[in-house]
Design a protein that fits this description.
Layout lengths: L16 H5 L1 H7 L6 H7 L8 H18 L12 H13 L27 E7 L9 E6 L12 H4 L10 H14 L4 E4 L7 H10 L6 E5 L5 H7 L5 E5 L7 H6 L4 H15 L1 E7 L5 H16 L4 E5 L20 H13 L3 E2 L2
Parallel strand pairs: 2-3, 3-4, 4-5, 5-6, 6-7, 7-8
Antiparallel strand pairs: 1-2
Length: about 350
């Protein structure tokens, strides 16, 4: 069993607000409830039906099935809900629109903006630096990304899709199972970003034998269809909510229509699983980004939504070329964002 070096990571059950908001995740982590991916493997699907129609029908009934299934006497059908998700995702892969870049290319033979065809694993390890409820987190970092953030804190892997090694799905599933036996509380797919690697992730978890919470650690720029595939598969959404409704996303990450896409996806994720929202405070962006984001979360997702306001920004990669973010944020800016969140009643991990 993995040795826990973070005493705060033990406090994830009980009567505190964070524990209440992450109760389903906690039950899966403690092995008293099946993960959504496990349940999706146990729901029989008619493979002769229209794939999306069948998926929509099951998605509506999923919570009922999810609450009924227990840990014993389960048998995998010949064709499951998770198998259906894989089939749908294989079709999208041939005309890729996993994210809202919507390159529409066949990724079996070509690459879109993310430059990813076959997923490359930059690293996988027991992460002790994640949010307390997640630690120790089996974190799998993919190389490559669908964003081009000029200040990316992981630019060495996110901006180089080949910086890593190919690990076949069955082998990765065995690694995930081993880490779980060693004491991981979850499997945490990140990068770069996991979105371009959705098919690989589904196939890998379909081969995993252990019951483990699946964490989607993402920039949340997924397409609506990708969000539907994730519904009934992901247990905890760990979002990176970067920008407010101004043009900051286009200037700093090269993505359009950011606010509309990411707010839509947060609403969908809130209905589909537990959630922690990260927000990295950028220098000179408290008024245009931090406060509008936090205000929107309170108004649209509820005050009980768990947020982590992060102050570890540093000007790396190409940040020095952009004057507004070429320095560290002032301590006063970080404090202002944290106090704003607390002032409007959000549950802050800081």
């Amino acid at each position: 069993m993995w040795r826990i070096d973070r005493p705060d990571s033990l406090n994830i059950t009980g009567n505190n607000p964070v524990a209440k908001e992450l109760s389903t995740y906690s039950e899966i982590m403690l092995n008293t409830r099946l993960s959504r991916s496990k349940v999706a493997r146990m729901i029989e699907v008619d493979k002769n039906e229209d794939m999306w129609v069948e998926h929509e029908n099951i998605m509506k009934k999923f919570n009922e099935n999810y609450n009924k299934l227990v840990l014993t006497n389960l048998k995998k059908p010949d064709f499951s809900y998770l198998d259906l998700k894989i089939k749908i995702t294989e079709k999208i892969f041939e005309n890729c629109y996993f994210c809202e870049r919507r390159c529409y290319i066949n990724r079996n033979v070509d690459m879109g903006v993310c430059n990813i065809s076959r997923p490359k694993i930059a690293s996988e390890f027991m992460h002790m630096g994640e949010e307390a409820p997640l630690v120790p987190s089996h974190t799998i970092f993919f190389a490559g990304c669908n964003f081009e953030c000029i200040y990316c804190q992981n630019w060495d892997i996110s901006q180089s899709a080949n910086r890593g090694m190919e690990i076949e799905e069955r082998k990765m599933a065995k690694i995930i199972d081993l880490r779980r036996k060693e004491g991981s509380r979850n499997v945490n797919f990140v990068g770069g970003d996991p979105t371009p690697n959705l098919l690989y992730i589904l196939k890998t978890m379909n081969l995993s034998k252990e019951n483990i919470p699946v964490v989607w650690n993402s920039n949340f720029y997924m397409s609506e269809d990708a969000m539907k595939v994730l519904d009934g598969f992901i247990d905890l959404y760990l979002s990176d909510f970067k920008y407010g409704p101004s043009d900051c996303a286009q200037r700093l990450s090269g993505v359009s229509d950011y606010w509309n896409i990411v707010t839509r996806n947060h609403k969908m994720a809130k209905e589909a699983g537990d959630m922690i929202i990260r927000h990295l405070v950028l220098p000179n962006h408290v008024e245009c980004c931090s406060k509008p984001i936090l205000k929107w979360i309170k108004a649209n997702l509820g005050k009980n939504t768990v947020v982590n306001i992060m102050g570890q920004y540093r000007p790396v990669y190409k940040a020095a070329e952009c004057k507004e973010i070429a320095t560290h944020p002032d301590p006063e800016e970080i404090e202002e964002a944290i106090n704003y969140a607390k002032g409007i009643g959000l549950i802050s991990l800081i």
